[in-house]
Design a protein that fits this description.
Chain lengths: ~170, ~400
């Protein structure tokens, strides 16, 4: 892989993503941890741009940083101790092992088909920029992903109705 | 990569092509981020003068002719003020928050087309980029409120974040109407789509919804409970002094003008107007329309009283959100129907006035219908509520006593 501006950008965004991730798990200050999470997500958005998916990058910033991470900060404010966690490490070895094994599987699952099965090494950087219109057509066309799209919509609707039911006053007349 | 304009001139002058490209891009970035910075200096003076006239005062009139140098004096004062960081504050986040707040507004200007030929970036996802970047402002306020380590600041930040996150929903739903009409997220194409008819005539309701929710996003009256002095001292920026406060202040002013520009682009045809092919005239059209809208924003700000947090939230969730969703669905349905019937062109960018006239009339009538429906409903609920509470000032006192 030759070294050019795109490689440099990839390295920078990867470092931001990974560094943010490390910040999330090592910070004893929960609020700072949330900010690190946003930094990490921002790096992910940069990687999406390098992958020629600007739409996903914008959605990443809008949904994950603008909405979900903000909700995280609210959740953090509700915890008892924000700034000085009494325990930094828990000893849930079984969980740690399971998470680690899952991570190894994921990495192997991504790397194996690309690097081992194909003789040509595929660069992560694509030349084809898919437009938003392409994405929209793919989501609703019969040959595309209309079924997963509809299933996801149904799931979201169900979740929304569930949230309303839970949030409803119990005393309310039904 | 292509290398037009300044870059080409530099290469012909004997510069390294890579360096020339970097330099011309750098100048572009400085210009794009510089324009809002210079504008804000003028805006502060305009705002103070307009506010003064509305409140039957004269406004700043001592420094320079008509007080025109007042902002510079204020700026110098802010710069020389002591820069205080509270001992118990989270230093890093405390100092980062004003920067993020400022950046979240300046970054929007990267996709704003000043003229048909001058823009920071011609992104395919321009409108989405605007929404994404604007959501960073919420983060800045939350960080500022928390890092100050002050209960008033944190309370103020909670209110703001609740407000901003809620009003983002009608904002985006209203924004989807012009995007749907233009069939693209690209800012330039959205403007070109209005070349025969501005979207304000096809979607006046969406325009109003966008204007209201963007005014709320800036946190100004009647949505200024962020800085409700009587309840919160000063809101999330209470601990900030000097230029760090100045950055929050400038970000707010710039945000209002940015919203005026965006409203111009999405609904009032951007730089479209007679002779818009000339860059300077196009720029003047954009500036003129945005300034008029900015004036209306100021007018509203200085006329309406502040609402309570529960009123603001009710207004959003029980009024703006349902109306914006209904408006979007109806517009989508009518648009698709007319396209199938051949009454509306599928590509607005190249359509003539005669082609877009039928769809404009139908959409306008539908919008007026929704507005009439809403007004009728408001009238009945208002009347029944007045009857239920017995009317008069007594009911207000009871409501305020919570």
């Amino acid at each position: 892989m030759e070294f050019n501006a795109i490689t440099l950008a990839f390295i920078v965004f990867s470092l931001v993503t990974l560094g943010g991730g490390i910040g999330v798990v090592t910070c004893i200050n929960l609020f700072r941890g949330t900010i690190w999470l946003m930094v990490s997500l921002f790096g992910m958005a940069g990687l999406f741009i390098l992958l020629s998916a600007p739409f996903l990058a914008a959605v990443q910033v809008l949904v994950y940083i603008g909405a979900i991470a903000i909700l995280f900060t609210f959740a953090v404010m509700l915890t008892r101790s924000i700034t000085h966690l009494p325990v930094r490490f828990t000893r849930l070895w079984a969980n740690a092992f399971a998470a680690g094994a899952f991570f190894v599987l994921l990495v192997a699952g991504v790397i194996y088909p690309v690097w081992v099965v194909n003789d040509a090494v595929h660069f992560p950087v694509s030349d084809v920029t898919r437009t938003t219109a392409d994405l929209g057509v793919a989501l609703v066309s019969g040959n595309g992903f209309v079924l997963p799209f509809e299933v996801a919509s149904l799931l979201l609707t169900a979740a929304m109705i569930g949230a309303i039911v839970i949030a409803r006053d119990v005393d309310d007349e039904l | 990569m292509d290398c037009p304009g300044l870059c080409e001139a530099l290469v012909q002058g004997g510069a390294n092509p890579g360096l020339a490209q970097f330099l011309s891009l750098f100048v572009g970035v400085v210009l794009v981020s510089g324009i809002p910075l210079v504008t804000v200096i003028v805006l502060i003076l305009v705002e103070r003068k307009v506010a003064a006239r509305i409140q039957d005062r004269i406004g700043p009139n001592r420094v320079g002719p008509f007080g025109s140098l007042q902002t510079f004096a204020d700026l110098l004062k802010l710069l020389t003020k002591e820069d205080i960081t509270p001992t118990a504050a989270d230093r890093l986040l405390y100092n980062a928050a004003p920067l993020v707040s400022f950046a979240s507004v300046v970054l929007i200007w990267a996709v704003i087309p000043y003229t048909p030929y001058h823009f920071g970036a011609d992104l395919e996802i321009g409108a989405l980029y605007f929404v994404a970047v604007a959501s960073l402002g919420t983060l800045a306020i939350m960080t500022a409120g928390w890092a100050s380590n002050n209960k008033y600041a944190l309370l103020g930040a909670f209110r703001v974040v609740a407000l901003l996150v809620s009003y983002e929903i009608p904002l985006v739903f209203a924004l989807m109407v012009p995007i749907m009409l233009a069939g693209t997220l690209n800012m330039l194409d959205i403007i070109y789509a209005q070349s025969s008819m501005w979207f304000v005539f096809m979607a006046p309701l969406a325009m109003l919804l966008f204007a209201i929710s963007s005014q709320a996003e800036t946190g100004r009256a009647p949505f200024d409970l962020i800085e409700a002095e009587s309840e919160l001292v000063a809101g999330f920026n209470i601990e900030y002094s000097g230029m760090k406060f100045g950055m929050f202040f400038a970000a707010e002013f710039m945000h209002v003008f940015t919203n005026a520009i965006l409203l111009t682009i999405f609904f009032f045809g951007g730089w479209l107007g007679p002779l818009w092919n000339e860059p300077l005239i196009a720029f003047a059209w954009l500036g003129l329309k945005a300034s008029l809208i900015y004036f209306v924003f100021l007018w509203v700000r200085n006329t309406v009283p502040r609402l309570r947090i529960d009123q603001v939230m009710r207004f959003n969730w029980f009024f703006l959100v349902p109306v914006s969703i209904g408006n979007l669905l109806l517009t989508a349905l009518l648009l698709k129907l007319m396209q199938e019937l051949g009454l509306a062109p599928r590509v607005l960018q190249t359509a003539t006035l005669g082609e877009v006239l039928p769809m404009t009339l139908v959409l306008l009538l539908a919008n007026l219908g929704i507005i009439a429906l809403i007004l009728g409903r408001l009238r009945t609920t208002g009347r029944s509520e007045r009857l239920a509470t017995g009317g008069g000032a007594g009911s207000m006192a009871v409501a305020a006593g919570d």
